[in-house]
Amino acid sequence: MNFNDISLFTLMRGKLGYLSARQSVIAQNIANADTPDYRARDIAEPDFKKMAMQAGNSPAQKLPMHVTNAKHMTVSGSMSAFEATERKNTYELNPDGNNVSTEEEMMKAAETQAEYTKVLNLYRKTTDMFKTAIGRPGGGA
Amino acid sequence: MQLSDTLKIAASGMKAQGDRLRVVAENIANADSTSATPGGEPYRRKVVMFQNVLDRELGIESVKVVKRTHDQSDFKKKFDPSHPAADEQGYVLYPNVNTIVEMMDMREARRGYEANLNMIEISKSMLTRTIDLLRG
Fold first, then answer.
1. Can you tell me the distance from the alpha carbon of B95 to that of B104, in angstroms, rounded to the nearest whole number?
2. Considering the entire predicted model, what is its pTM?
3. From CA B55, how far away is CA A62, in angstroms rounded?
4. Which helix (H) or strand (E) holds A86?
């Protein structure tokens, strides 16, 4: 049995990937809170329902690029499937063209962390369910 | 982007704010540094510039202090003919450092530093929780 075939796991994996990518973008915003002309960025939430429907086809595993020549470049594994775009409405805009509000970013960071913890707990519960099924002691607690 | 990238980005932010704090300290320390020669220029206030730079190797965008420039505003002038740095009219030029402005800058740098530190702590706890899944 492959865990990736279970849509719930695909969904959780996708969500965890999205949340950690978002956390990186928030860190970037905070690091650039005093950089002139920097605009706050964010990642739009992907359609998780669609992701669950096509299990095993999460954004992390896109179709590989076809290589017909040795000089062709392939997409490196480090490339993110999530794209950060400029945030539309922010709290403020500084005279130097920077619109990062540290408070707003901290709030979003806490929000992302809470979501992340939620999904992790869900993951643990689901694996516990499997453990109960296979009868491992302590698994069904 | 991964959680470990978050740590690197926040660390770059902390480094940039630390650099800024260093320049503030230089300015405050030199708030009264006049020229050693008569009529010469005193210490000129320094300012830092932040820029968003792309780290191609890691694929992350971090922050960096790209330039240290000098504040081109006018020097303060004081009448003190007995001072060794006084010009023919008896005026001494003092640095264009305003301690209150520097204090404000210092507070801002500290707050920025703290925000980055918070970010590291949040990401670290997220990472730890993920690793804890292994303990099942």
1. 18
2. 0.78
3. 24
4. strand A84-86
Q: What's the CA gap between A11 and B17, in Å, rounded?
A: 38
Residues 6+ apart with CB under 8 A from B57: none
What number is the ipTM of this complex? Answer: 0.81
Alpha-carbon gap: A107 to the closest alpha carbon of chain B (Å)? 11
Q: How many CB pairs under 8 A join A and B?
A: 104
Distance from CA of B85 to the nearest CA of A (A): 37
CB B9 within 8 A of CB B64: no
pLDDT in tens, A23-38: 999 999 999 988 888 8
Q: At residue A31, what is the residue type? A: A
Q: For position A81, what pLDDT does the model report?
A: 66
Contact B85, B37 (CB under 8 A): yes
Sign for the CA dihedral angle at A68, A71, A76, A79 comes to negative
